[in-house]
Amino acid sequence: MSPSLTSPVSGVRKSTRVVFIARFTQCYTVLVFFSPSLIVHPEEDRKYRSAKFSKPVPLPSVHDEAEVDLTVVIPAYNETKRMPAMMQSTLAHLTSSACSARSYEILIIDDGSKDGTSNLALDLAAKNPKIDIRVITLIKNLGKGGGVRHGMLHGRGRRLLMVDADGASRFEDLELLWKAMDKLSPDEKQASIAVGSRAHLVKTEAVVKRSILRNILMYGLHTILRIVGVGHIRDTQCGFKLFSRGAAQQIFPYQHLATWIFDVEVLLLAKQLQIPVAEVPIQWHEVSGSKLNVVTDSLQMLKDLLILRANILLGRWKAPPRSKR
Ligand SMILES: Nc1nc2c(ncn2[C@@H]2O[C@H](COP(=O)(O)OP(=O)(O)OP(=O)(O)O)[C@@H](O)[C@H]2O)c(=O)[nH]1
Ligand SMILES: *[C@@H]1O[C@H](CO)[C@@H](O)[C@H](O)[C@H]1NC(C)=O
Ligand SMILES: [Mg+2]
User: Fold this and answer.
1) Given pLDDT bands bounded at 50, 70 and 90, which one contains residue 287?
2) From what superkingdom does this record's organism come (predicted)?
3) CATH number of domain containing 123
4) Is the residue at 19 inside a domain?
C-alpha cells in the first residue's frame, strides 16, 4: 500500500486519540476535585469520656488485640429525643441472660450534635457505671458514615455492631446476626460480615406506610445500586450490621465516604476483599424524627454514588489485600 493512502487515516486516529486523552484527563481532574480524601480526625476526636473518666482519655485502636467480645457502635446526631428509649432496650438485652457470657462495650459517637447528645450519653454512662459506655464527641459534624467509621476504628470488640440511635431495629436481633456470623466463621481474625435486612418487609406495612416519595426513591436507589455493583445485597442501607474484628481492620481504614452512601462503599470494599457477607432478615419499625432530608440527601446520594463508582472503576479507591500489608 502506498503511504499516501495510509497516512491521512492514521492522522485521524492520532487526533481522536489526543482528543480522547484530553477528555479523559479533564474528567479525571473533575473526579479528583470532587472526591473526598480519607478522613483524618483531630487529636480531640481520638479521645473518649465515660463514667470513669470525665476528662477525655485516648481511645484504643482496632489494630490492637481485642479485649471484649462485642463493641456496639452508635452514631448519634441530635439524638436526645430518640436515644434514651433505644439505649434502654439495648442495655436490657445486653444485661439479659441471652448475653450473660459476653463482655461488651458501647461507643456513642456524637457527631458534633447541637442538642447536648454527649451530655445525655454521659448521664446514661453515669447511671450505668458497671457498663463500659464510652462517649466520643466529634468536633465537626461529618455524617453518619464518618461516625460509624470512627467507632469501628476504635472499638475493642472481637465483633463490632453498628446500630442506629433511633431504635428502629430490634436490638435482640443481634442474636440472629451473631449466629449467622458463627456460621461464616467463629474466629474474629477471619473477616466476615452479617448485615440486617429489611428486604422481607418491602411489601408490608412497615415500608408501605412510609411516604410515597421515599418509596419511589427507594426503588430508584435499588436500580442504581445494581448498576454500581452491590445488587447481590438486597438491603444495603440497613443501620444494623455486624463486623468481625478482622473485617473492620481490613475495611474501615479505607472508607472515604462520610455520608449516607458509606454503607455501599463498605459493602463494595468487602466484595473486593472477598469477605463473606450474610444477609439476615430483622425486625424494623419506622421511628419519627428522621435526620434524612428526602430531597437534598437524595441528590447528595446520587452524587456520592457517581463518585464512588468512578473511583472504584479507576482503582483510586480500594483496600489492599491482607497479604500485601
Ligand atoms: N454520626 C452521624 N450520625 C447521623 C447523622 N445523621 C444521622 N445520623 C445517625 O444515623 C442514624 C440513622 O438516622 P435516621 O435519622 O434514623 O435515618 P433514617 O432516615 O431513619 O434512615 P433509615 O433508618 O435507614 O430509614 C441515627 O443513629 C442518627 O443519629 C450525622 O450527621 N452524623
Ligand atoms: C441539629 O440541631 C440544631 C440545633 O437544634 C439544628 O440547627 C440542626 O438543624 C439540627 N440538625 C438536624 C439534621 O436535625
Ligand atoms: Mg432510622
Assistant:
1) confident
2) Eukaryota
3) 3.90.550.10
4) no
